[in-house]
């Protein structure tokens, strides 16, 4: 009989590593998928960026206009906190004989809220 085991991880990297370990070491694993929030990756990259603002300072007849460029670090507050959450769910479909081994590996790899349904 098939069973579904789900667990939450803090980051997509931890979930990916746990799924890889389960596929390598546990028999009767038929499917393993990862579900995460792709907006959180954009928020993570935004923290390393800078934003530029061009401000026209004055206008004359010879040079049209003169601009000033202001540089500032990009604010992570543009994307609200729930969207910045990088929690990832791992879903493993396995045989009922392998459920205990899958749960043990998920627990050892830092899985949270581990649940299984038959």
Identify the notable features of this structure and list them briefly:
4 helices, four-stranded antiparallel sheet, single chain, 6 strands, 2 domains, alpha+beta, two-stranded antiparallel ribbon, 118 residues, Alpha-Beta Plaits, 31% helix
Give a written overview of the molecule:
Helix content is 31%, strand content 43%. It is rod-shaped. Strand 3 (50-60) and strand 4 form a beta hairpin. The chain folds into two domains: 1-37 and 86-118, BMC (bacterial microcompartment) domain (Alpha-Beta Plaits); 48-81, no CATH class. With 118 residues, it is of the alpha+beta class. The strands form two sheets. The chain has a four-stranded antiparallel β-sheet, with helices on one face.
CATH fold-level assignment of the largest domain: Alpha-Beta Plaits
* Order of H and E elements: EHEHEEHEHE
Overall spatial form: rod-shaped
Which structural class is indicated by helix and strand composition? alpha+beta
Q: CATH H level of the largest domain: which superfamily?
A: BMC (bacterial microcompartment) domain
CATH C-level class of the largest domain: Alpha Beta
The profile of the biggest β sheet is: 4 strands, antiparallel
Q: Can you name the CATH architecture of the largest domain? A: 2-Layer Sandwich
Classify the beta-strand content into a percent band: 35-45%
Number of helices: 4
Uncertain ranges: none
Helix content: 25-40%
Span between termini? 8 Å
> For the CA atoms, what is the radius of gyration?
24 Å
Structural domain count: 2
Order of adjacent strands in the largest pleated sheet = 2-5-1-6
Mean of residue pLDDT values = 80
